[in-house]
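Put briefly, the fold is written as integer tokens. The lines below illustrate.
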Amino acid sequence: MTSSNITVVGINASSGTSAQDTFTTQAQKVLASATVVIGAKRQLDLVAEWTPADLVELPRPLLPGLNMLLATHTAQPMASVVVLASGDPMFYGIGATVRRLGYAPLVLPVPSSASLACARLGWALQHTEIYSLVTAPVDSLAIPVAKGMPFLVLGRDEHTPSEVRRFVPEETVVEVLHNLGAEDERRVVLAPGAPVEPMPGLNILAVTPQANRTFAERPPAASLAPGLPDDCYEHDGQLTKSHVRALAIAALRPMTGDVLWDIGGGSGSVAIEFLRVGAQAVSMAAQSPHQCRAVVFERNPERAERIQANAATLGVSTLLSVQGAAPEAFAKALESPTAVFIGGGLTIPGVFEQAWERLRPGGRLVANAVTIETQARLFELRKQFGGELHHFAISHEHAIGSFTALRPALGVHQWYVEKN
């Protein structure tokens, strides 16, 4: 359903009551002819004295209530519905929500909080990554902190500045830009280790990780390429080793919007690095259509907890979920996969068959085999379904007295197949 009688109007943070100071000329005309205006109480108070429209507060919970409100009011003859938003309605705003509900409103933005922040800081907006903690946990900042580039963080509430200051390393500079555009706008640099008082209002944080850090001092996790050192993970020995992991993810070819099933998760390393390959700010935003997701199937409860902990440490906990044993837990996965990795359990009846059935057309499946039994199963499947077989023999250096030799690790057979 689309509608041309809905306008989403952005409002700046000014606390004044002058319409001329708060709205553009076009927005003033739209509001003057509106039949109903929907917004937060603070926003409605700004328009109460000079619009003839009925004023309706945003419902809670938002989505079902807003959909009902819009359906009711747009159905009225000669309706002109205005939805008020903070800043740019399409930047983490209600304009995008209205679009997701199936409407096509006219959107009249004013500068977003990110635009105002970059203007105050002197940062180029197009070079600045922006992350939101409105719905995400603070550990989702692990990736931008490791990458080392300055970035912005949209705060959830008055406690976000304190959470971010505690999470990032001491040498990281954290500055809070509070109520940008309002009369009480202020900037506060948060000292490491010092208590941070709650800051009610709109907070956006400028984070500069270790500005003087050299390339040599960057941690391994600063790279999003697959094949992180094995010691980046907590594990009990069940870990796809670095080089094999990199080869598996290269074969899986992570793409925008992918859903990965990682069967026999172990430490979760394949799923975690699959997600990290595409982990940019735009793809990590809540409900982003570009977001990759992963479901890890692991029967051992201790390993399942360890997978979640590893995902949090490496910044992708919001993109990954852990289910139980395969294939019984496949039914719990709401989304069918576009990519499947079988690192363990290939010989368990039903694992391949049910994963293959759920795999979407055009999807990719990669299976690794080390043991003779698993290799035999892999060869059978190759005959039946086609695809490509590869064998990897990787050796690592090993000291023999004062000399060095290469010791071979167990060879790995890899099967790659597409579901055409």
Notes: The mean pLDDT is 90. The longest strand covers residues 412-418.
